[in-house]
Amino acid sequence: MRKLCPAKLEGRDKGDLISLITSDVELLEVFYAHTISPICIAILTELVMVTFIGSYHWSLGLLALAAYVSVGVILPVIISKISGTIGDEIRSQSGGLAAYVLESIRGLDETIQYGNGQQRLEGMNKKTNELSLSQGQLNKLTGYNIAIANTFILVFDTAMLLLSAYLYSEGITDFSGFIIPLIALMSSFGPVTALANLGTTLENTIASGGRVLDIIEEKPETEEITGKQSVKYSGADCDNIIFSYGGENVLENITIEFPENKIVGIIGRSGCGKSTLLKLMMRFWKTSSGSIHVSNTDIENINTADLRNMESYMTQETQLFKDTIANNIRIAKLDSTDEEIITACKKASLHDFIMTLPDGYETQVGELGETLSGGERQRIGLARAFLHNADLMLLDEPTSNLDSLNEAVILRSLKEESAGKTVVLVSHRSSTLRIADIVHSMKNGRLS
After folding, report:
1. Domain coverage including residue 191
2. Are 210 and 87 in contact (CB under 8 A)?
3. How confident is the model over 261-293, as pLDDT tens digits?
4. Do residues 86 and 191 both lie within one domain?
5. Could you tell me which of 156, 125, 165, 149 has the C-alpha nearest to residue 197?
6. Angle at CA 28, nearest 5°, toward 23 and 33?
7. Closest CA to 49 of 197, 194, 189, 193
8. Residue 62 and residue 181 in contact, taking contact as beta carbons nearer than 8 Å
9. Are residues 197 and 342 in the same domain?
10. Which of these three, 217, 246, 261, is where a domain ends?
11. N or C: which end of the chain has fewer CB within 10 A?
12. Mapping DSSP to helix (H, G, I), strand (E, B) and coil, where does residue 254 land?
């Protein structure tokens, strides 16, 4: 998933992904631990039993073989075909329900505020009922499977009784040849009965395996680049780049330079392509045509690790982990000292706020930073960018959640810290770009 992110996972439901890496993987574990071994046991056991029963007469062994193959192979295959795509439906519905529940939990505040609880509950009940209906169909097939398997066993037990009795009456076998093969067959269906039950359960497992393999076999939008010669940062530029998403051009013929020691501002309304340009510079996606250069080198020829080290990228939405404030900032530089973190927080106008908290930098931010405001989360994202201390800083709406006072403090800090760096400042607010040395306007994916 790390390799596929963000291009191939951006539109995926998080709840569905959670279902995939938990319940789907668990079903595969059950398959390897509790399905393959029963198959091996059944094959070995029934080969021994066929040989043993056949030692009394070849026809008895042949009948035993037919019984085992019918119950353990033919029946599961037939039931599996009858099941059709129900396994896929169950796994898909299970993932959809997980996504809906996760979304409902995260949106509880809004649900309560706007009295939307009944509608969410009805939606959850609908998805639950759909899953229950599919599961009921699978359970019904399981019941048919068990009933048919028991009928097969009864038929073959009766056939063995009649055949062994015939051979005994004709004097072909003695009494032991009559009773022992019958008892041996009747008592040896356990392993193949386990195989017979796979006819329905295997559908779920195959569906889960398909979902997991789809993720594993998915090709990343951008492959990791290694083995290239390291480069030292000396400016960046975009040369006539075009980027299409979903068959529609998002960026068209973008040519722009980002010189060293300059703050370059890009202003435009939401949705005009500003954020997309930064993601292309991070090489999260590939351009449809044109090229992006860092240090006069196409980023397609720069080691991914080197490119990430040269760039600090602050997104509009700062992702926080359920950990302390210090550790949430430290992810930008894992070997950073406490002093370095404090310095970065001061630059982001965050230090004074942290010191008002009872546990200071050791304060837990909660799941997804739920204990912090939007502005506080945004300043943590900015502190990460300062801590990373890259030569090329890509800042996407860095002050959108801040009041005018905090915005002024941060912009002043950015201006002071930009010496020797290139800062690309993207915003829809003209006040944010007053510190920029160069300002470009973007509209409908074009620069003006």
Report:
1. 14-217
2. no
3. 899 999 988 878 888 899 999 888 888 899 999
4. yes
5. 149
6. 120
7. 189
8. no
9. no
10. 217
11. C
12. strand
User: Which tokens is 341 given?
Assistant: 């973190």
Domain count, the chain: 2
Residue 3: inside a domain: no
**Cα–chain center distance at 448:** 39
Number of Cβ atoms within 10 Å of the Cβ of 298: 11
Tell me, yes or no, whether 390 and 301 share the same domain.
yes
Instruction: Report d(CA 225, CA 403) in Å as an integer.
Output: 41
Query: Considering the domain boundaries, does residue 78 fall inside one?
Result: yes
CB atoms within 10 A of CB 368: 15
**Spatial contact of 75 and 144, defined as CB atoms under 8 Å apart:** no
Provide the CATH number for the domain around residue 113. 1.20.1560.10
DSSP string, 129-153: HHHHHHHHHHHHHHHHHHHHHHHHH
Domain match, 144 and 264 both: no
Q: Give the three-class secondary structure for 309.
A: helix
Backbone angles phi, psi at 336, to 5 degrees: -70, 150
Rounded Cα distance between 228 and 211, Å, is 34
Length of the chain counted residue by residue: 448
- The answer to whether residue 4 sits within a structural domain is no
pLDDT one-digit tens code per residue, 132-174: 888 888 788 778 878 888 898 899 999 999 999 999 898 898 9
Amino acid at site 259: P
Q: Structure tokens of 42?
A: 């059944």
SS3 string, 320-368, reads CCCCEHHHHHHCCCCCCCHHHHHHHHHHCCCHHHHHCCCCHHHCECCHH
